[in-house]
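Sorry to interrupt, but I need a hand with the structure work. Could you add the entry underneath, on a fresh line?
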Amino acid sequence: MPMSVQTNMGSISALKNMNINSSNMNKSLERLSSGFRINSASDDAAGYAISAKLQGEKGKLEAASQNSLQATAMVKTAESGVNEIENMVRRLQVLATQAASANNGANERTKLAGEAANLLGQIDKIANGVNYNGTKLLDGSGASTTTFQVGAANSANDQVAVDFSADFTTATTGLGIAAIDLTTASGAATAIDTLNTALDGLTTDRASFGAAVNQLSYVSANLATQMEQVSASISTIKDADMAKEMADFTKSQVLVQAGTSMLAQANQSSQNVLSLFR
């Protein structure tokens, strides 16, 4: 090979390889410090596009999970109110049954009617007062179809509807028990039938709330599984294999050090030309 001072091919080759290894070492450092294999779209264009889409999907699923939990809390709030109303209606049945019996006189029936009036008042207070975030749930003013978004897509499969339109007040539009009269035996006998009808409606409505809570619990469990799988997919595509990156970094670091030494040797070889002039 001719000896030349204008072009040092050994130095050029050593510099090229050292730059390549230095770039690889810096890329490994970036991945080791961030924990991600993909830090920019240029690292893996297809992988970046897929992981970005999956991250968007994960965000929507997390929001849907929160919606499901809040929907469950809302339905449970309504159900707990209905539970107390049901307990008071059962107590009213006991009072009506006592008042309908001939062994109770006018004074006893007056006392029974007084307790019944207090219970009726409390039923109305609960029905008119139970709300979730300002939305009344038991006074009949709610929507017949209250829709909760519990999925990532705008479709019926990702929504749950709950009926909050039932009226649990004592009015005729609700339970229809406001006018019960326990001051007479005949009135108490009529009240027994009225309260039985009211209780049947209460148990039906409460059962629907219970079914909605169960449905939402399954929705929440399914969303948790979906988020887990999406997170695993993102990790597979985007996360760095730390053991592999450390091995690559060590290899590149050694090659950079060797390249630096070889570049110095290649540069020194040009000095050999001077021996020709001695």
